[in-house]
UniProtKB/TrEMBL annotation:
It comes from the Eukaryota. This is F-box domain-containing protein.
Amino acid sequence: RVPFVLASVCRRWRTVALDTSSLWTFIHSPKHDIAGTCVEILLERSGVATLSIAYIQYGDGIDPILEMIAEESVRWRDFLWIIDGPAPDASFLRRPFPAIENFVIKTAGRGDHEWTPEYPQYLPFAPRLRYFSSSYDNIFLAGPREGPLPLSFIHCRLFGVPLHSILESLQAAPQLEVLELYVGQPHPDPTPLMPVFFPNLRVLRWFLYGEALSLAQLIRTNTLREVRIVASMAPVMADLFSACAATIQRISFPDGRVDADLVPHLRSLRALERIVVSHKAVISDSFLDALTTNQDLLPRLHTITVNDRALLNPPDSGALVRLIKARNSSNPSPTAPSKISKVTLSSGGIPNWLKAQVDHMLGDA
């Protein structure tokens, strides 16, 4: 709206607005009868400048206005596509995007993109791409690529995609810093799998199911600072935990049971400072008591968060109080573990009396 308003103020401002192509480079999805005309004007007056696009998709089919914008794909720099409804066909994304830097699709729809050996390649040419996020199932950066991409962030959801295709796509992002993967049962494939090393990977958030769990041995790094996994995945994370024992500072469990069975798999994380339990996860007495009785277990831990719908088991547990007392007692030994300095209990399933007691113990009451 801004460039149109400026151009309507007076003749002088109209001249300035028409001569300033950068004013016309942001395109969103206007919801009125002249939307198509507005977009045509923006495309024309922006000249050859790169475009930033934020588009909300309504209905099942591709909006003709979005197809019009796709004709200028060589100028796209930023693209946000919010799909409000069933995921429509995304074939327009098979064009070259030589200027794209940030690419985001947000949708709750699953889409109908089942993997086949002739699977389409989206964004086949995107040499400047730095940020890729797609919650549209199976839209990912399938290889092979002409060369490495400057990607620092990848988020995608893959179902039925062979592991070698996933690894091939990740090989195109050697400087990756954040990786978020949701991988369902991969398509069987005899292709030999080669591990991929990421020298700068800081954040790993993934949900792996079935044969996809083997990715835990194929993604390698020694720089992780944050990990988010389902609790049941901890055993297959042994190699990554060992390689990043001195760097991982935060671990989050959005699902599963955090109990004493996890202790052997987390023991190597000597730099861990924060544990977050959220969504459908449960943290048990047995895990908290293991931290209480083993002073050398997670010695730098100082923050525990239980939020969303996560639960303590049992809900009236005294284990958390015992842990705080044990870790926060006066102990001048240089080998003593860090004190528990912050506990956040925002889950509705935790008794208010326990929240108040913990707040008092930490001096917040």
